[in-house]
Amino acid sequence: MWLNRDVISILDFNKEELLDLFSKAKLIESLKENNLKNLKGKILTTAFFEPSTRTRLSFQAAMLKLGGSTLDLGEPSISSLAKGENISDTIRMLDYYSDIIVIRHKLEGVSRYAAEICEHPVINAGEGTKEHPTQTMIDLYEVWKTFKSLENLTYAIIGDIKHARTISSLILSFSIFKPRKVYLVSPLELRAKEKIRSFMEFNGILYEELTTFSEVLEEADVFYVTRIQKERFSDPYEYEKVKGSYIITLEHIKRMKEGAIILHPLPRVDELSPKVDSSKNAAYFSQARGGLYLRMALLRAILTGE
Ligand code: NCD
User: Fold this and answer.
1) Cα–Cα separations (whole angstroms), residue 180 to 99, 108, 142, 150, 177
2) Which listed residue, of 41, 149, 157, 186, carries a Cα 20 to 30 Å from 213's Cα?
3) Homologous superfamily of the 133-287 domain (CATH)
4) What confidence tens digit (pLDDT) does each residue in 129-180 have?
5) Which of 57, 166, 272, when mutated, tests ligand 1's pocket best, judged by the most ligand atoms within 8 Å of its CB?
6) Which of 266, 268, 271, 272 to mutate to test the pocket of ligand 1 (most atoms within 8 A of CB)?
7) Model pTM?
8) Which of ligand 1's atoms lies nearest the C-alpha of 288?
């Protein structure tokens, strides 16, 4: 089911495969001192052409915990890309040195292209503004652990709906696990792109676009909060107009349903007040921690089939 698979889009996987992955991750998470060192001798390479903390380091940590080793391409300025080497030659080299390659790039299609030219599996670690399949797996894993199901939940997705690839990737997954309803909360300038809206309509996903979240505080099961993605604005003035649009505080939490959870792919800027961190609804650190186990399960499944 998993052996040698590339991970390019969440849509490459079906319900059964994803639930199988979540069970594997939960098992790994439940083992206190894990003895899953069966990736000894295998090499994972991270090649990130955009900034990252959690995704790059949690893939590396996952590989090391499984007994494998890691390489990192480093900043483009220290690799031969700085000498004018094209990315396709660079990727070919990584394929010779590695057993699995994890790529992040600002252009859509780079990881699919890499998967075509590489003999070894390729994982998309975030691409452009559309795909971030392993983050979506982590998001769904946290929701699955909390609600014991992924169907029929109400989501309030808040922030930069237009640019956050974690959001569009999560929306793609709603064609696999059907929610009851999705509220998309953003400033008018940052509403979902036409492609994403037609995707939801085509797949019968019930959604509503809002500019404030106050009216859904009592209704949503999952609040998925994201930062406004400053680096994706071509005009800094446009960013200034929308920055700080949404800030979740303890006052909002008081109105949420018992058991509702707040997720955030992180990094956060100002959209979640640190005072919220200790509330029982705050699930974003648990989500980030779970990401390590999810990525361990994923690497193990792809490299050993187990
Ligand atoms: C996100 C990303 O890179 O898309 N980070 C992550 O992988 N957790 C979110 C972001 O940058 O806002």
Assistant:
1) 40, 30, 18, 10, 10
2) 149
3) Aspartate/ornithine carbamoyltransferase (3.40.50.1370)
4) 999 999 999 999 999 999 999 999 999 999 999 999 999 999 999 999 999 9
5) 166
6) 266
7) 0.96
8) 8
